[in-house]
Amino acid sequence: MKTILSTFAVIVLTFSSLMSNKSTSVTLVCPSDVWLNCGAEIWDLSIYGQAVYYKNGYQYDAGPAQVVYDVTTCETGKIYRTWQIEDENWNIIECTQTISIGGGSFNYHNIYWPNNDLQLYGCGVNTHPDHLPYGYGRPTYDYVTCSMVGSSYKDQVFNFGPDCKKILRTWTVLDWCNYNTGGSNPGIWKYIQTIKVSGTSQPNLTCVDEVSIVANNCHGAYVSIPKVTVDEDGCYGGYYITNDSPYADNNGDDASGDYPIGTTTVNFKVEYSCGQEMYCSTKVIVDDKGPVPYCLSTLSVALMPVDTDLDGVVDDGMVEVWAKDLDYGSYHPCNNGPLKFSFSSNVDSTFHVFTCKEAGYNDMQLWVTDIHGNQRWCAVTLIVQNNAANIPDCEEESGAMAVSGIVTNQNSEPLENVYINLKSKGYTKTTTTIDTVLVPFVIDSFYNQGGLLIHIYDHRESYIYNEHSEYVIKGQQYNIMTDEAGRFGTNEPEANRIYNMTAFKIGDNSKVDQSDLDLLSSYLKEEVNFENPYSFIAADINEDGYIDFEDYNLLEEIFNEEEDEWPNERQWVFYNKADFETVIGNPLGLDLKQRITIDRSRFISGNLDFIGILKGDISNYETGEAINSEVVSRSITESSAKVYPNPFSDNIILENNQEEEVTITIYSVDGKQLFKQTTSDRQVQISSEEWNVGPYLYTIKTDVDITSGKIIKI
Q1: pLDDT single digits (tens) 598-610
Q2: Average model confidence (pLDDT) for the chain?
Q3: Is the pLDDT of residue 5 over 70?
Q4: Between the CA of residue 304 and those of 312, 314, 356, 361, 582, what are the distances in Å?
């Protein structure tokens, strides 16, 4: 604080007589008055000057002053320093210095009021400030010197029914050091907080997202829609459910009824306590019956020789196949014809020209489209052959296949330096040669004059499959690494093969910290639940499809550097990203693929994406909203209670330093509860006589925190 010295002149007192009429030549001079800011030095007053007096032209020290403190507990007010001297005629001469101390600067802007518009649910909800969610409790304020700040509140309660009330909570904050009834800073401020209490909690709705059905006639179908269900836990009130479907049999929680072909969105409204509303919707899809495709399962076509460069020598083959030629009696049950046939969903793809490049087996699709655009398809294997045409160098070619994709984490952020392994198995290939021969056959017979039977022959072509050869096609393997954008790609793999693609990345143990252990421990004790599907995978350390104390022990060993090898020799786990697009909740029981299978094809295979999840880094996948707000995990050194000795051989002691109520629970490493007790005693002795030698886990729970740890019996 700064000291402000008076701009007035020093006080000079010259008396000729105070006690008598005799003259005196003594002059007393006081230091100037002083104005101080709050917090300045008020005990060593010598820094604010010393009185002197003059006599016969000489200066003398006036000696110590008499000090009177008129100062409040806020250290504001006035201090009076008075000096007295006596002249030779026994006259008393005195002067006084006044030191004024101003108050602190606490004001409205130093106050942080609780959040407004709080909604509470439940029966008998405790609305005391100390029991409200974080941010809605008591006001807080900055520390400002020379201020004495306190707060109080008063509630006005308005009841609107058995399940609804509102509270207007008026908060008052007072700075006692600056409180006065007037002025620009009166030292008292008020704030009104609104709290709404609904006896019926916000309901949990069960409303199916979509119901899809194929029309059973040419106009629509009767659709059975699951009822909207509500978990009722109200105190006195209930719920009222309506729907807006014009096709429903009733307008309540069941919207089943006759729905037309097409998509209808049914909206459900749930009204509950305090006139509040919730909504959910169900999409009802009635698919047109569509065409019924029938096609040839296999068709062989022969290439015709072609001289592409007009040099008189056959150098290629060609055959044109129309999609309608593959039809084997497709029809539409509602006579929505005429039908169109194509080789893809593009109705203009009505034919395909095959050449030597496509010699061999070709997997095709015959698409059937009705007049309303409804489509169905069936599969055809089309075998392109080079038979009698004898086209040179016209054999089934393997060709090449382009493979590309991207690897990201759960936030779609690219992962660099991920090894992509592309591997195919070898197989044995069989080839058959076809020979054309002339086979004689009898066209007429007669007996000659000598009585002999004479036959007249002709010849016709016949095909003899008389040569087979087998050879082994070796397996192939390709290794690719992602770049800084998480991308990978290659065009080296041969087509007409089946490849399995997997991903691997070197782990990072530094991502595992105490918060991950605490979160996993709380999950195992059912104190928290995971909201993010990735958290379950990150917590399944040994990848056995379950989260248990074995995972906790493995993670703890890695965190404490007792073990540096992850189960399955990997920390990163990669999945086919497409599998996660519809995952909700715990994915461990789902058939999620850790590889991507690429079927043999001549076509480019792209968008083969992986998503990576780092085992052990559980807290990275949880936003914090999933964690129960009453559960706060902290280390044993911060807790008011502790367990010792560790290690132990006989009994262990729970020491409760704050004499608060605590609950201690002890588990074996396989999750079995061995001991549980709630107490407020300062010391509790726990017998371990029946426990085996080895490690144990414990938790100590109070009203405000949970501590977990590990103890070892020796």
Answers
A1: 865 433 344 578 9
A2: 79
A3: no
A4: 15, 10, 10, 17, 49
* Three-class secondary structure of residue 262 per DSSP: strand
Backbone angles phi and psi of 275, in degrees to 5:
70, 20
- Find out if CATH 3.40.50.720 is the number for domain 400-426+474-628: no
Nearest to 478 by CA among 594, 578, 400: 400
Pick the CATH number of 205-287 from 2.60.120.290, 2.30.30.90, 2.60.40.10, 2.30.110.70: 2.60.40.10
Residue 56's pLDDT band (cuts 50, 70, 90):
confident
* Domain range annotation of the chain: 3-101, 108-198, 205-287, 298-385, 400-426+474-628, 633-713
Fold of 3-101: Immunoglobulin-like (2.60.40)
Token representation of residue 80:
């009076």
User: Does the pLDDT of residue 454 top 50, yes or no?
Assistant: yes
Sign of CA dihedral 566, 569, 571, 576: negative
Q: Is residue 228 within 8 Å of residue 213, measured between CB atoms?
A: no
Identical topology for domains 205-287 and 633-713: yes
The string of DSSP letters for 592-610 reads --SSEEE---SS-B----E
Would you say residue 193 has pLDDT above 70? yes
221-235: string of b/e by CB count within 10 Å (b at 16+)?
A: bebebebbebeeebe
- Asked whether the bond before 338 is cis by omega within 30 degrees of 0, the reply is yes
Residue 636's pLDDT band (boundaries 50, 70, 90)? very low
Q: Give me the DSSP letters along 112-180.
A: EPPPS-EEEESSS----GGGSPTTSSS-EE---TT--EEEEEEEEEEEEETTEEEEEEEEEEEETTT--
Say what percent of the chain tops pLDDT 90. 22
Confidence of residue 438 (pLDDT cuts 50, 70, 90): low
Give the tens place of pLDDT for each residue, 139-148. 999 988 888 8
What is the maximal distance between C-alpha atoms in the chain?
199
Instruction: Determine the distance from the C-alpha atom of residue 332 to the mean position of all C-alpha atoms in its chain, rounded to a whole number.
Output: 47
The DSSP-derived string for 327-381 is BSS-B-TT---S-EEESSSSTT--EEEEEGGG-EEEEEEEEEE-TT--EEEEEEE
User: pTM higher than 0.70 for the full model?
Assistant: no
Yes or no: is domain 633-713 CATH 2.60.40.3080? yes
The H or E element spanning position 668 is: strand 662-668
**For residue 639, what pLDDT is reported?**
52
Q: Exposure of 114 by Cβ count < 10 A (0-12 exposed, 13-18 middle, 19+ buried)? A: buried
How do 77-86 and 92-101 pair as beta strands? antiparallel
